[in-house]
Amino acid sequence: MKILGTGCGYNKHRRNNPKDVIIGLDKSKIPCVDMVWDLEKTRLPFRKNEFDVVYASHVLEHVQNVTNLIKGIHRTLKPRGKFFITVPHFSWNFAFWGLSHIYYFGIHSLDPLIENQEFTWVGYSFSIKTPLFKLIKKRIETSKLWFFIEKFANKFPDIYEKIGLKCIFPASCIHFELEA
User: Fold this and answer.
1) What would the pLDDT profile of 1-44 be if each residue is shown by its tens digit?
2) Domains of the chain by range and CATH?
3) Inter-residue contact 127 to 116 (CB < 8 Å)
């Protein structure tokens, strides 16, 4: 498999199979980075349908034009390729620490890019005509001490985000698994 780790930093994805090719991409040249690239400036420097898997762990919240980046990742994924995303949940206080976080994510933030996900905003409801991804899984993560809240948040994500539970028991992050 060919795997891309965007914004990998010091945590480049590890090989599960010795035949895997893993490329670590980041804007800083540090030990785990194979290719220095600024995700803000230009499109990804890879061919169409090049990767089987792309990881974006704590990256999307830092990118100004996140939709263009996601479209670029979709372009580089093979058909049925997997895109694994982890972003801080908007209820987590660390989501607002530091000036580098531009976006704040909730459970429905990526819905306009996912098939069969209806997007509702101020009384208007629509779904995207040509979605980029199929949703495999989305999961809210909370503190391990609040496992019962995490279970509730994942069973009833809309209720969790819309009522005060998110304020009392904030989620740390959201994991998305998407398929091109």
Assistant:
1) 999 999 887 777 777 788 999 999 999 999 889 999 999 877 89
2) 2-141+172-179 (3.40.50.150)
3) yes
